[in-house]
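Support request from a user on the community tier.

User writes: "When I paste my structure tokens into the form, the page sometimes reloads and wipes my input. The last time it worked, I copied everything first. Here is what I submitted, just in case something in the input itself triggers the reload:"
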């Protein structure tokens, strides 16, 4: 089955060999960027699979050589042949150095990903990039032939410049890399301006890919404002493929800044920061605050929080590995009681846990804000998925649970201020939780339960507001203001539930219930009643019940002989007397005769 799938794929790839270039009688045109972008998207790079794309490039090179009768030797001996302008008789010859360079570049990117765990592979990656630059230079030399038009020459020159800039970027030759990337960006912008809007998309994507590299080079040269530009690009990228590249560039930038971060202060205690990944995360927290201020949409803010959570988990794991020899830390992890002052690194682990819980709470609050927009109401857009109150209740449960874990962190158990702040916030979020539970009950027309829950929500909100008066944090002041608005909303909801409960108990309410019940019956059962039923004019009118309901029918009758008890039968005594006389007439004689001779033979 695998061989069959490979043949089918090969046939599809063969059909692309002639589809990417426009051939005329005078000159050859190769849309290099369009060609390689289509190949990358169809053969692995959409999911970051560089190995699959490298294999595709090898197969395509072999097919082109075979179709052009341009082999690299015989079966038992390899004789390399270079493509020169003299043998350029077919536009497919131009694809050979192009895909050779792409194969080397894909291998280099694969090795770059593996170099995170195996540093020696970085040297192999550099060698493959140099090989890609060599093939790209051959491509430019080949396109100097008069048989290639101006577009082909520009595209190949831009591609070669971009590959060379990538090599200088990895070698950290920032000035040369910046010069080459600027040249490539200028060529691609000129090419984009020469085509229609549909064709400009591919070239503009390449320009967007080059821009972060340029700003990173500028930062390393000495432009401190470049890091701000990188953060803005990361916010605008959202969740597309460019965001992962920007995350890598930002992490590399923070690695240089991390050398200056040697200690951190939390709750009045200063602890040293020795683990590199922890330093990078703490720098990322400070940068994320600026990114959140400049972010415009909720989705971009949620994306920033998701990235922070991943970095925090990685930092915690790295710090936990260094604490394996700490006996007190091991006991705390197992849930045992810890007495006395804990170590600095253990305290730093508690601080990272606090940051993780805080980030998770803020992320969930953004999710709640997003879901509130789609609660059922008069201004609800058509086609939108309606948010149920139960969805918000679950998020508030998670927030309350996270806040409950903060006072239990090791090293801050005796911090009454932190405990009081957490308990106050818990009361506030409990008020929101009870509010949405009450809304769920009111939607089910359980008015008594809803009113009781609204009253409990008011009590929790009042307790929280009393506690917020002692807090001066900006976030707490904002939550207190929101709680005051919630109190007014709860009061209105309570009056509404009370009115609805009275309406349901009135005759008018009973009549409304009857009308609703009538609307649920099929039309055939209420032909003599007039009810305005809009569903009858819709796509699925409820005219008759199908399949029909079961109806009782008479069962098969059972017959009982009641006259038998009242019938008088004739006497049989005379018959019984004759039988007794016959038996007595035989006597002992008949018995002896039967015993000796076997009885009478008839």
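"...and here is what came back when it finally went through:"
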């Amino acid at each position: 089955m695998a061989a069959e799938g490979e043949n089918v794929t090969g046939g599809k790839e063969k059909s692309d060999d002639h589809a990417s270039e426009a051939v005329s009688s005078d000159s050859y045109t190769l849309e290099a960027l369009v060609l390689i972008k289509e190949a990358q998207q169809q053969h692995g790079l959409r999911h970051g699979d560089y190995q699959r794309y490298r294999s595709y490039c090898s197969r395509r090179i072999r097919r082109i050589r075979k179709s052009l009768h341009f082999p690299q030797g015989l079966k038992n001996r390899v004789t390399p042949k270079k493509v020169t302008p003299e043998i350029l008789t077919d536009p497919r010859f131009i694809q050979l150095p192009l895909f050779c360079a792409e194969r080397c570049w894909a291998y280099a990117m694969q090795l770059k990903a593996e170099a995170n765990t195996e540093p020696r592979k970085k040297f192999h990656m550099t060698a493959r990039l140099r090989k890609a630059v060599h093939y790209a230079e051959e491509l430019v030399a080949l396109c100097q032939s008069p048989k290639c038009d101006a577009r082909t020459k520009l595209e190949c020159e831009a591609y070669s410049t971009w590959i060379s800039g990538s090599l200088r970027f990895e070698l950290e030759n920032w000035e040369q890399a910046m010069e080459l990337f600027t040249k490539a960006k200028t060529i691609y912008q000129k090419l984009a301006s020469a085509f229609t809007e549909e064709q400009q998309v591919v070239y503009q994507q390449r320009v967007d890919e080059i821009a972060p590299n340029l700003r990173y080079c500028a930062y390393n040269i000495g432009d401190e404002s470049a890091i701000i530009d990188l953060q803005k690009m990361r916010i605008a990228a959202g969740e597309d493929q460019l965001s992962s590249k920007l995350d890598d560039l930002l992490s590399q930038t923070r690695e240089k800044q991390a050398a200056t971060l040697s200690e951190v202060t939390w709750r009045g205690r200063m602890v040293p920061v020795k683990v590199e990944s922890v330093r990078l995360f703490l720098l990322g927290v400070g940068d994320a605050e600026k990114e959140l201020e400049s972010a415009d949409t909720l989705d971009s803010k949620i994306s920033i929080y998701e990235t922070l959570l991943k970095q925090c988990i990685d930092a915690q794991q790295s710090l936990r590995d260094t604490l394996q020899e700490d006996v007190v830390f091991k006991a705390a992890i197992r849930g045992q009681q810890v007495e006395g002052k804990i170590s600095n690194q253990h305290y730093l682990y508690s601080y990272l846990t606090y940051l993780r819980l805080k980030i998770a709470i803020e992320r969930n609050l953004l999710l709640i804000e997003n879901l509130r927009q789609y609660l059922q109401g008069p201004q609800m857009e058509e086609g939108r998925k309606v948010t149920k109150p139960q969805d918000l209740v679950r998020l508030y449960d998670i927030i309350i649970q996270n806040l409950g874990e903060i006072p239990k962190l090791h090293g801050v158990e005796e911090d009454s201020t932190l405990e009081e702040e957490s308990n106050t916030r818990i009361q506030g979020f409990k008020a929101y939780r009870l509010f949405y539970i009450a809304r769920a009950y009111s939607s089910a027309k359980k008015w008594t339960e809803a009113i009781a829950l609204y009253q409990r929500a008011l009590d929790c909100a009042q307790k929280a507001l009393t506690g917020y008066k002692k807090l001066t944090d900006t976030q707490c002041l904002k939550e207190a203001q929101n709680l005051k608005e919630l109190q007014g909303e709860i009061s209105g909801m309570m009056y509404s539930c009370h009115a609805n409960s009275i309406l349901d108990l009135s005759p008018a309410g009973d009549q409304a219930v009857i009308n609703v019940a009538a609307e649920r019956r099929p039309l055939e059962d209420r032909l003599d009643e007039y009810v305005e039923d809009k569903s009858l004019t819709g796509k699925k009118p409820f005219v008759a019940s199908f399949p029909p309901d079961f109806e009782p029918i008479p069962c098969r009758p059972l017959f009982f002989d009641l006259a038998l008890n009242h019938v008088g039968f004739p006497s049989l005594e005379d018959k019984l007397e004759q039988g007794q006389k016959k038996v007595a007439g035989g006597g002992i004689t008949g018995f002896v005769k039967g015993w000796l001779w076997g009885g009478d033979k008839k």
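Agent notes: The reload is a front-end session timeout and is unrelated to the input. Residues 474-505 form the longest helix (32 residues). Strands lie at 21-23, 28-30, 263-266, 269-272. Escalated to web team.
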